[in-house]
User: What shape does this take?
Amino acid sequence: MMSARTEADCLLDQGALYKSRVLLRLDHDAPIFAGFKAGAFSLYYGDEPIFHFDLEGRWQRAYLDGIHYLKALDTTVRAIDRVREGSNLVLRRRTLGYAEVSDLDQQIRQVALDLIDRLSADRLLRVDPQGESLRLDSETLRDFLERVVLWDAATWFAQRERYLATYPTTPFQPPDGINRVVLQASLGRSRPSTFDRESSNAYQPRSASEFEKHAKDVLRLWGVRIRQARAAYLSGSDILHQPPRDVCAYLSSIARMFPINGASEDATGLGSTAGAARLEGVHAFLEDFPETRPAQEDWKAYRTLHLKRVYLGLESGDPSIRKGYGKQWANQTLVEWVRDVKSADIHISLLLLDDAGGREHAVPHQEATVALLKQLDLGPGDVVALLDGSEVLEGHHHLSNLTAMSHVEHREAQAALRNALRPFQSERKVKVVPYSLDKQWM
Assistant: This one.
């Protein structure tokens, strides 16, 4: 009876993303798939373990003993496990401690060392894909594995130091922030913030020259991993409140230095290593909407400089609830902000706290929020993301008279809000998605 084919076997024939690949066999051991795809390299040992690396040899994702591990540019590692809660399977994540990270780093490094030894001893049977152009030769494979081996404890420590020098504070990222290049045009913040957990130290906007230096540091930090990036993110909830000339200066620097669709073909200076993938554009974030705002001509200038999406943080459509979060803007003002942004053909993602009213104000929060959303000029390409306030606020609510919802109450409130938005979703073609930090892979 023929044994079942493993994931590694299938990828040799069906892994179209891998433009260069090979299957390696040793006696009765699980087959080993090795392959290069755009900006990345993968190893599959049968169905598991599985390892993914960037082209500098830094591991990014691993699947071991049924658990996913994700290593960020700052060298922290999150473990994501599927656990059963009643009849449901849910994702649970945790950040590994220093010793756990060190052990995992060494374990993955040892995988590369062992495979180098097997290749050097010529103990592995090669199975090549159909088509000579898809063949991954042993010398190229060995050279890359040696690159992986260079990432020992000292090298990872140096990477951590580079990250901390590049990002003095931890920037806020909206949902769906996977593979987004973060650029900090400012440190601290000048306005009350619900979503941005960055230090509330004095606001320090970077000058054009300071930002350009920072962007170069970010580019060095990413290295050839920039080929995996999907968009650039201009962080800070204050950025789009700055004078338009300053915003244009930031966006111009990004367009010069990063491979953005429609920008110069070799903006990064990384040559062909960066040219295989290009960013869709620049994203930014806002959560306060004063009456003074950029003119429509300014938004059009931002769009010309590749600003493609703006995230808007919204606690509630009920002004009395928003005041508890330190926000004083009027609903009509948000309507006008959205109108101006959309007039420049810039997409909007609305970050909405679905439980902002707590138990006491759940009904007025839902009703006022749905009414406000219906006034906004949202359409195809726009998103409404429903966020759990207890996650965003790390368990600390701004309303002194607010009773946080239980897990069951929150799920019911979210379901009720989604149901109320269904006509809005079907008529406007706006995407409405629930979001949990448990589901975000950094």
In short: The chain has 14 helices and 18 strands. The chain has two domains: 7-157, 169-439.
